[in-house]
Batch of 4 targets.
Target 1
Amino acid sequence: MINEFQKPRYIVLAESIIELIQNDYFPITSLLPTESELCEKFNVSRYTLRESMKLLREMGLIHSRQGYGITVVAKEIKNYYQMKMDAIPDLWEFVENSKLNIVNKGKIFAREALVKIPNVQNNDEWLVIEATREIDGITPIAWKHIYIKSKYKNIIKRLGKDKVPIYSMVEKEFGIRTLRVQQEMSALTIPNSAAESLHLEKKSIGFQITRFYFESSNQVFLSTVSIYPPNRFNYKTELILSS
């Protein structure tokens, strides 16, 4: 069995504060204690505390204002944005440098998916694949649910073998074109099944990235839900403003 990964101290602290926020110990609109008080309460250095506060700000859970303090603004946050397909070449690099391991597969109705798939009926049948991604044959960096439209079921035999994104497999196999990709990101408490696959403690905090792939008829043909521990995944986006 793989040993539990050692988390950085600031991640452990951030998880503790998030749990307090979600349990209303620090209610929304309330001010967090001062830096000195927090350091004393959690027995951490100012550097560790500041790194934790930076992470919580990035998650959108707190807001800092000079001379006023740190305010709790949310329990959960969802940041929505859309990107053109050629704006995420990192997706190819990520797939090429990691391995997809299939844990389980089956069929479900759309209503049973972890996320609501746009423009589909609740009773529509989808293929579902539970999987993990590893970067060195040992370290799991993501837990995934992959939903594929039933008409493209033959693509399953290629999963875990071809080093290309799944949407590209479907395009090549069935001659369709991806019109757009809708991406959603959120912070969450990792579900127990995912935490076990990622070798994490229960109630660990992580990030969820959900992608919906639309074909030219504007119907979703593929959806992926990926959950990452924050200390094993770094996601950067560059936005270029047009003149």
Target 2
Amino acid sequence: MVQGDKPWVVQQRRPTLFALAAKRLPAGEVRSRAVPAMLELVHMQATHELLTAKSLLDRFEATGLNDATTLRQAMEKAVGELHVMGNVQGVVHGSAVVGEFAAGYVLADEAALSAYLLQPAELEIVQTAYRDVMHAQARELMDRNDWENALLLWQHLHQRKLVSQQLYLDAARCFKELKQTADTVRVLREALAAFGDSGSPEFLEQAGDLAFDIQTDEAQSLAETAYRKASDALKETISGVAER
């Protein structure tokens, strides 16, 4: 079961997940020095595979994270923050040199692992990773001037309340490129309502710039508000630095 370098995962008849990863060790004098790093690597690879098992990912569908590709990438991104080892009862793991290979394994009760991952703090980690992965996908579409499909991803995240300052700005840019002025103003208004008091000066300035380019009274008023808030945020930043 240790042929090749690719990790894999097996779901047994019991509600148990088992993941194994193996990687061939280098030959020669470098082998002894490489062993600790290789054992850590295969241990992490096995953990990655365990957390991306389909039966486990399916548990997140009820929370709205139902884009399978994005969720898998999000779990891979978040695995280092989830701290499964030591926090989930019944998880057994280890790594060892087996012949010419470094091998690592993780064995976990599926129900216990699912319950841990769906706790509010851990779920928030996965949700944030899901948002960031899908936002990157939207950015790629924007780079190709595919504004409509980028907005579909934005709407998917917005419906799940997985938003950020930059997501709002990118959504406004998409609507602006599509010449949907009313929607551009609506998104900017919502962005300022959500992040006007906590947003970075850069976010507030960019929101103001986007609104300023729209020649309507409402947009100009939004721009004025955004610039004023950006100025206030910069003053707080400067005074905070001076106090140190």
Target 3
Amino acid sequence: MGEEQRPATARAGYRMVKRAHHVDETRQRIVAATVDLHGTVGPANTTISAIAKAAGVTRATVYHHFPDLDALFTACTAHWGARQQMPDLAGWQEITGPQDRVRAALTDLYRFYGEAEPMLALTTRDREALPAFVRERNQQTARSQLDVLLSAWPASQRTRKRRALLGHAIAFATWRSLCVDQGLPQHDAVAAMTRMVVDC
């Protein structure tokens, strides 16, 4: 049966579904274009005009779907995160010994940093261009990682010094300095940072 032979209600429903699909497809193109720009030129250099051009839409269409940066970044971080193997904090907590937990956590983190390095390098460089809620979420993630690692030690050994060294060991900048700038193999970087934290 051709569209002209369908009942009016069926034709209207078909058009609504088709339009909804088109709207969703347009939204996804905008999100994908933004993520790609964040990972190639960085958030600070990602303009609405550049997003519109990369997505093949107008600036007005971008604003229609995402009226502010918070909405756009929320969609983009979800899109990007869904495609990553994120660090497994719950898995870290299952490891009881402090040294074993730190070693496993750093292996997991440094693996993630290596896989996500282009995006993480640019978003770290452009941190001031990120919305406040993204910066706060990143800080909360680092605090949660620290808390999980430090909790492997008895309370009397959860010193300010150990917390500071753990914070240094889990930082993206530390991994990048050791493994990218200095060319240290990741397993050697993990071993060195684990010894530093355990022996302090």
Target 4
Amino acid sequence: MDLIIDYAADARRRGFPVDLLICGQDVDGLMPELRAQIERLQLGDSVRFEPFLDDTALRSELAERSVYITASEHEGFGLSVVEAMAAGLVVICRDMVPLNSFIEHGNSGWMLQFDGSEPDMQRLAQLLSSTEKKISMMSDAARQAAGAYDWDSAVPKFVRHYRDALQEV
């Protein structure tokens, strides 16, 4: 989270509007440090924390946003990324397995190193400078890429594999 907040601050310094919503419970007890960071970086009302959003509130928030960002250093399955893509959000994430198997940089998402370097910040600025048409195209590409993981597409594959396995028994 601290990296995402740093990147939001850099984007704001470059003149981009920042409306960062951080969802989820503070299981690691980092909230005091994160709030201090937001204060120090003068992000004020640009960052909001929501420990829990029900489905209706989450859908409403997703409809108001165009980007989903995660700086996670470890990712098991990447389900949150696929869900964000299915919602039509442009995903910004690290170039790492399994996330880079879901996203095509510049087409259905955006990959950063999250190393705080100027080239990384410039790549973020490049995305944030995109036209509405480009963002719309990326959103459509994200939805299409996520479609491969839709239950209607994924379940028949699982059923086929189970049937094959049962025939071998």
